[in-house]
Amino acid sequence: MDRINVEHEVISTLRHCVLNGSDRKIPPTESLGQHGIGLDSLALLEFIIALEKKFGIRFSNGFWTQRGELNLQNVVNEIMAAAAPVSPVRQKLNAPSGKTELIDNSTIAQTTGERGFLQRLARLARRLLFVLSRYIYERERFVILFRQIFESPSPLYSSSLDLTFRVVKHVDDLARLDGFWAPLKSRKKMAIFKKRFLKGCICLTAAKNDKIIGIDWLSETGDHEPLTGLTIRARQGACYAFDLDEHRHYKGKGVGLALLAYSLAETQKRGFHSQVAIVSSRNLKMLSAATALFGFKKCGHIITTRIFRKPKSTWRAGGKSGRGALLLP
């Protein structure tokens, strides 16, 4: 796709996501801040997610962390740089000879089928190798985030879905989680859900048509984090937010961000002075949203090494470091 077509698609997406269908002129070098979108705006996240889906690309880390002026030209440049160039394959046609060679269609189909099978086999082998390597050894970094609740008002976020938010009051609400996780994970996740609920953790949910499609947890005491192997505790008066999860069929639709906004409001309602959380450094969009849009600040990190899936972690927070239980700032 050439630059003109890319620019046309970007403008079309901007009109749909941000401008409610307005046909106002958008000059390429004009700041998008004049259209209600900026690096501190929830609209930016919706706009970029829509573009990533449309073009099948991922915006670079630099785009999310830059602080320069954001305009249409910059967005198009990012897409052109991220998209792999597609060149038409030109085949040299030989001049027809006096003898015409007939090729059996079944031979072509067989050759194509064999080639497709080998390609699928190669992809499967690469996938298995990747999974196996992560099972043997994996290293992950988590960022510790902190937000003073009464420092600034909690931002509002409305998903494109018609969501209903509530606090789980009874274990019977488990029935509404049917299909939330993949079948292989469901039983284990349900057991963790029950254990947390009976321990007194606060479960927040986002539902669509009475079907739970988002979960977030709050605790005033802390919880054991299986991904890091650490027992993470919150200080008195602080609230630990953890294990924010979206229904597997509703990923990328803003459910997590809407639930995060609700959790901040619920944290304030319950009288906590701050909320702390950990986010994987791989989850760049959530990190960007939490810091740029929701007012969280980075206050430490956790480095986790997993050998045969057994985690060992070191942490640094509040000027201290350690390997055991972590008391969040």
Protein described:
- The chain is α+β, with helices and mostly antiparallel strands and 329 residues long.
- The protein folds into 2 domains: 3-82, Non-ribosomal Peptide Synthetase Peptidyl Carrier Protein, Chain A, CATH 1.10.1200; 140-327, Gcn5-related N-acetyltransferase (GNAT) (Aminopeptidase, 3-Layer(aba) Sandwich), CATH 3.40.630.30.
- It has helices spanning 3-17, 42-55, 61-65, 72-82, 105-136, 183-199, 255-269, 284-293; strands at 137-148, 164-167, 202-208, 211-219, 223-225, 230-233, 238-246, 274-280, 297-307, 310-317, 320-322, 326-327.
- The radius of gyration is 25 Å and the shape is globular.
CATH top level assignment of the largest domain:
Alpha Beta
The 3D shape can be described as globular
N-to-C series of helices and strands: HHHHHEEHEEEEEHEHEEEE
Give the beta-strand count.
12
If helices are DSSP runs of H or I spanning 4 or more residues, what is the number of helices? 8
Beta-strand proportion: 15-25%
Describe the biggest sheet? 9 strands, mixed
Offer a quick outline of the entry.
With 329 residues, the chain is of the alpha+beta class.
Distinctive features:
single chain; 329 residues; alpha+beta; Non-ribosomal Peptide Synthetase Peptidyl Carrier Protein, Chain A; Aminopeptidase; 2 domains; 3-stranded mixed beta sheet; 8 helices; 12 strands
